[in-house]
User: Fold this.
Amino acid sequence: MTKFADLHLDPKVLKAVSEAGYETPTPIQAGAIPPALEGKDVLGIAQTGTGKTASFTLPMITMLGRGRARARMPRSLVLCPTRELAAQVAENFDVYAKHTKLTKALLIGGVSFKDQDMLIDKGVDVLIATPGRLLDHFERGKLLLTGVQIMVVDEADRMLDMGFIPDIERIFNLTPFTRQTLFFSATMAPEIERITNTFLHAPVRIEVARQATTSETITQGVVMFKASRRENEGSEKRAVLRALIDAEGETCTNAIIFCNRKTDVDIVAKSLKKYGYNAEAIHGDLEQSHRTRTLDGFREGTIRFLVASDVAARGLDIPAVTHVFNFDVPSHAEDYVHRIGRTGRAGRTGKALMICTPRDDKYFAAIEKLIDKEVPRLETPAISERPEQEERPRRDRKERSDRKERGERRERAPRRAEVAEVLETVEPVSVAPEAPEPVVADPAPRDDQPRRRERRDDKREERGHDKGERRDRKDNRVMGLGDDTPTFIRLSFDERRGQKS
Assistant:
């Protein structure tokens, strides 16, 4: 059996690997590390959770042991699709390179540009970045990629799903033609194959498992669920999820619950917390500090259930996840492989359960076709809360209306009391039957405009147009129709004149 000591790694790297508790490399590591150390391009295809990160981190540290980085010109580049995966690669680099003097920088969103610029200005051996933030630094003139000797693309198929392929192609063109490329992916879509044919030079292909296969250590199951009514589907589906969790009992020490939409992630997390489950949400709209804090809590065991979108489906190394629940059937069959790959890692056993509604039948059929096996059907668990869920909306509406009515009464009561108090303080006023219309004097001119008003009054006196004279003249004027008097009016006047005469 191959050992890490047989792979010709740097002694300092071997010491760090041994201290981390690893002795035997995984198949992808045993196949990728030797050609990488020889300077060849590598195309690694392996399902998630097989140790692809160490497949490029260990040979990179060994090859970069000699030399020194210059300011703004990193010697190697690692591209990752998400912030969490980039941060995880940076953590692995710290573990394996702790006995060396190599430096690194992490360029991800949600972190100050100024702090990242300071690291780049000092010169780094390894630059770990997401494509968007890397190009931001490049366009600001803070980064040069002409000194890159080794370029790594991790989770390339996820890059494709997130729309990063144009950015990846641009970054490839910014790096030297003589670079060494290490390209890793769980699946090989036609677009990914096109990129490898374009930018990799005679790569050594290592494929340790059939594309898009699930691990044999994961027990799978699906519940074919149909709601009693369409409007109750969400609440009843969440009740099924809780019943599945309860049915697993103590064997479910922690779990990741996947939803397709970010809004559903928040709803499911709030629902679980409402029923007393220790759950937190994580998705792309949350701040980076919050996402990091949530992941740390899940790793440390202070959070039992992590409700996530597909941002957490790829590349995150959380080895002790016992269960994965697919609250929604993924619309892309490949995502199912990556989701359930969060459990059953490093030789451990795991369990993946999914809830499938009638509208998800076509997506579920695509999953079974991709993995080339039938997912066992499970009976819908008994839901003791269903009657409560059905009656609850009516009772809630009645209670809300009663509370609203009571609130309106409380609001009206003080208002009537206030009006009564005001009326008591008002003295009766006698009104003369035919009181003359009061003459309202012109308000006093404002202090800041006396001269303007005086000039205006002087002009009126010079013209002989006093305000009172104009009003009188206007009231005494007779308005006529001129020469355009309608015929029917003129005839009526003529008839009256004839009667008088």
Summary: Residues 386-425 form the longest helix (40 residues). The domain at 218-389 is CATH 3.40.50.300 (Rossmann fold).
